[in-house]
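Z., the sequence and structure:
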Amino acid sequence: MNRVYVCNCFGVTEAQVKKHAEAGACTPRQIASACKAGTDCGSCVRRIQALLGRGACPKPESANRVEPALAEPALAELEEAA
């Protein structure tokens, strides 16, 4: 069995970090909450960040949507006042 350890302090493997990431843990702090990796000496935090990569957390749809500054009725009132 080939295990690549990320956190030697708590015996956490790459596979475990990836499993927690797939379950929704997308920051080193969330990984730490899930399995304690990175909470003792901290030497594995950069490796955890590398495993998570950029964009590990999906952004909610609302973050991609741009709402108009003024709603349609308010915009119409401003146009009538001008």
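The first strand starts at residue 5 and ends at 7. The chain has a mean pLDDT of 80.

Let me know what you think.
H.
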